[in-house]
Amino acid sequence: MSIRRVSYFREWRPPTLDPEDQIYRAYDGIINGTRFVNDDGDNDPFTGDPKIDEDFLDGRDNDGDGRIDEDYGALGQQMYSFVMRDDTREADQHDVQREARAARSRMRACARGPTRSRGFQDFNVVEYQITQRLRSHARQP
């Protein structure tokens, strides 16, 4: 007997059905999204160094400071970001034969149009940050 370990349909889904789990849009120069700048003025408590672009644009407080998406780095003239997981209830209900790996993927896609810089124009970039977590028996959002 063979068991499928992945599916081709809806394995990756938003972490929850909450309105925060959506696709976010940004652009170069947007408020709180300036790259390589400490937009929120916070510092590392151990070293005192400024925390730069420590947030991921996803509607969540990723850095634990009580604020949401206040210091991320927007890429390109147009950027989209979102988080997907493979171990949600909805994914399991859709395809019970697959084996979820409790992985999370943070994705950003950006576009760069015409610029004055040669070699840095008219291209699209997709960035994936995939993290696998230990899967517990109790599901978490």
Count of β-strands: 4
| H/E element order | EEHEE
The general outline is globular
- Give the structural class: mainly beta
Q: Give the number of helices.
A: 1
Low-confidence stretches: 137-141
Radius of gyration: 18 Å
Strand percentage lies at 15-25%
Estimate the mean pLDDT confidence: 81
Main sheet record: 4 strands, antiparallel
Please tell me about this protein's structure.
- With 141 residues, this protein is mainly β.
- The protein has 1 helix and 4 strands, in the order E-E-H-E-E.
Q: What are its keywords?
A:
141 residues; four-stranded antiparallel β-sheet; mainly beta; 4 strands
How would you concisely characterize the structure shown here?
The protein is mostly beta strands. It contains 1 helix and 4 strands; from the N terminus they run ββαββ. A 4-stranded antiparallel β-sheet has the order 1-2-3-4, with no helix packed on it.
List the helices and strands and how they pair.
Layout: E1 24-26, E2 78-85, H1 89-94, E3 103-112, E4 123-132
Antiparallel strand pairs: 1-2, 2-3, 3-4
